[in-house]
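Re: folding output
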Amino acid sequence: MNKNQTYIRALVLYVCFCVFAACIVYKIIQTQFINGAYWKNKFLTQSTRMEEMEAMRGNIFDINGALLATSLPYYEIAVDVNVPNISNALFRKYRDSLALCFNALFPEKSVAYYMQLFQTARNKNDRYVFIKNGVRYAELQSIKKFPLFRNGSKWGLITLQHHKRERPFNMLAARTIGLSRPGIKPVGLEGAYDSILKGVRGKRLMQRIARDIWKPLNDENEVEPKDGQDLYTTIDINIQDVAEQALMRALQKHGAAYGCAILMEVATGEIRAIANLSRNQSDSSLYNESLNYALGYPTEPGSTFKLASVLAVLDTCNIELNEPVRVGNGTCTYFDRQMKDSHEPPKSILSLQECFEQSSNVGISKLVQSNFGKRPDLFISYLKRFHFDRKLELTIPGEGNPRIKSPQDIDWYGTSLPWISIGYESLITPLQLLTLYNAVANNGKMVKPRFVRSIKQKGNVSQQFETEVINEQIVKPQTIVKARQLLEGVVKNGTGKILNIPEFSVGGKTGTAQIAKKGGYKKGGVMYQGSFVGYFPADNPLYSCLVIVNAPQKGEYYGGRVAAPVFKEIAQTVYYGTSHYLKDLQPHKTAPTLSVQTFLTQKGDVTELKALMQQLKNPSPTMDGNLCKHNLLELDGQLKQGLMPDLLGLSAKDALFILERRGLRVQLSGSGRVKRQSIDKGMRIQKGEKIILQLS
């Protein structure tokens, strides 16, 4: 090969390299300057994303401000030991102390574990070291004081906030309060007011730091979430507790399948307590709130339905309560079907009053048949007037479908009218039945049952709910007077004698309904449902109440034996133990503010006080041992006796300090001073018990 050929080849290679280099330079220029915005945007879209931030769900309170349901903040904690602020020297200096701090707070992992975790992440340039999920707010505040993290938000601490819905009173009114779970339709009040409680989601820019691992790009949200509004219910958690415990004891005593108890304020229709308990499938000795029988399960009510029958008779016919009715030996036949009383009557002719007091099926059915046999539509029109043929249209979803037969129905028989009159061949919910009794106690005015008083946004009322009248006068006033005489006679002389209480009178009706098992009444046999519905005090009714005990298994099944004692316990507790319920409720007073300063000063712990103030970066206060002396002594005495003090008005720090020094587990919701506490003043407490404080 001569020199010319060598030169030409070298020149060709040189030109090729130049062209290649020029292409590279051009591509760099094109990428950085010509298409720079495009590639930058593409990078950002692949490494960042906008995530929705859940809003703080609104709280649900009882009538006195006790917290029934709240969303507590929990945090996912991670560490980025490779942020620019942490140099190698700083990392070596604080690695061990950081590991010690995490071990002290979360001792399930050793110091060596945390040290190795941080060192490995540093070596691999790992930007996300997971520490723990479900961290409480108080624990997060401690973590923020750890080495490095105390310097600010750019020093490696990564937090992601989540909310968990909790009911401080656990099972109490659980089905009425309801549930709110991701992917599942909320039920109860949670479901009915979901759009109000859930608030508005915010938005936060997240950055990818590893595969499927994202962390907040900024300290602030791009769009702040808007907290949900608070729901103030008509439930009184103290009465609810009484109702639930009384019902529980009755169900366990009689081995019943399920039961419900409802307490309603007569004038307003406000539900003060609503308990629904059913037998646990895995342990028959236990009962829990799983289904809302009170409003969701219509049944044949039995003898408690007889009030509707006598209302129709008295309102239509010009008869008195001493109207004679021939009952014979307690049996009669309608067409080919025999009806009989549960007990043979003491005499063959009873008055209307006696028929009702003794719950005579024969007597009541004869009254209805003789007065409405040729005009059954008129009788059915009264049942429709009592709202038995349609739903009450309550705010809580899941109301059952009632059914009242009509003479035009294909399954209307010649025996239908007499059997409907004693509580069969009809389906109504317990709450529908109670609404009728409540109307009688309310002088004939039927009001709609109500579960919510108001909706508030940050303490300000945004919506107020008033009493809703269904029917201004269900029957004539004189009919109501007679009906109340009948109901009070049941307790004085009839099947409800167990409710004869010396201090106050009760009006009501017992009920015992046969329930067909699978296969029908004849083939499958029967179970029973015992009930009692009434009101108290009879001379000036303030509350109406219904109790149902379904399928008792231990011999007794009459309503006067299985349900009336529960009614009695509820009525006596409300009347005796909580007399203020029978008066206008007074606004709850806020306790005087108690500070840690006065608490420790009173106890003489001046050194501890100074140390605490330095830790909280507050100046040492003036020591005045006489500050709030009476309140402090009272508070300390309650705590020593294992009783919960009134914490209203305390700062979050003060409340945390006082409660945690007594061994209680404290969870905070909100910020500021204590507005609500999940354990009421005076309730007994135990070390390790959890209390939830609502701040504002």
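--- second protein (sequence, then structure) ---
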Amino acid sequence: MRPQSFSARRSVTQTLVTAETVMEEGGPDRLDQALGLAIRLRRHARGLSQSALGEAIGVSFQQIQKYERGTNRVSFSTMVRICEALDCHVADLVAEVEQLDTGDKHEGQDLLTQPEAAPLLEALAQIRSPGVRRAVLELARSLARES
């Protein structure tokens, strides 16, 4: 086998280092999936489409889809831009990831496939008062603890 030239090795290394796709055995990393779900839930709560979020941070809607599925990793700079567009702090998003990630597939990761999810998120997105939104969130958390 012929040795690779320096430029060929550099090209391969750059490709490996800059590739954002995360494919481990069986698919995306669970933390990347949890972050994607947290982003998706926040986006829905704000009433933004994938296109609108993508435009706000300078990427395509397809890239937002990949972030939300966890198939592409979100860099820190991109996470900051996403949080700015979603009007939240990075710490809030990280806290949501910690809640969603239990090490195994969490029931919440299937939330958006449930028939009640879309109407609930649409209704929440229509609430303009931050105080009322917080009250709805606290009510939901209280009901979740009791069930």
